[in-house]
Amino acid sequence: MLFGQSIFQSVLERLKAEEDAAGETEEPAVHRVSGFPTGLAFDVMEGVSAASQRVGEAYFDNLGPEPSAEAPPAPAPSPEPVMPEHLARIAPEEIAAELALSPVDSQQVLNEKRRAFARANHPDRVAPPFRDNANRRMMIANLLIDEAMRRLPRN
Known about the structure:
The protein is mainly α. Helix content is 45%, strand content 0%. The protein folds into two domains: 7-54, no CATH class; 85-150, no CATH class.
């Protein structure tokens, strides 16, 4: 321990002295990969990459060109979606007529009708403003088909 210094302070001074001595003899780093005839893309400014000199702006390098003073006009907003006619029919009688359920339908036929109805009316397949109607139509159709399946004769 040097006079008037703690061990920690003396270690820091020694490391700083070693760093200064190594910095004087050290050559600038060159980023080369053996076997490649040219350097890497970041070999700029004597081995220092340009991006490392502008740390705060690195994000903006990937954004693309800055907009010019004469920016192109903004795209026109897309028109509001139009609700398909069948989504307006939410009465159970209307949905039953669409399904065309009959007492002679087998379980396989009822399952096919359920899948076909879901393809045309599932809430995930319609625009967000019409999902409530599609959801209501699906619930009613599922209830009608489930009831028709309960009435099937047991084998």
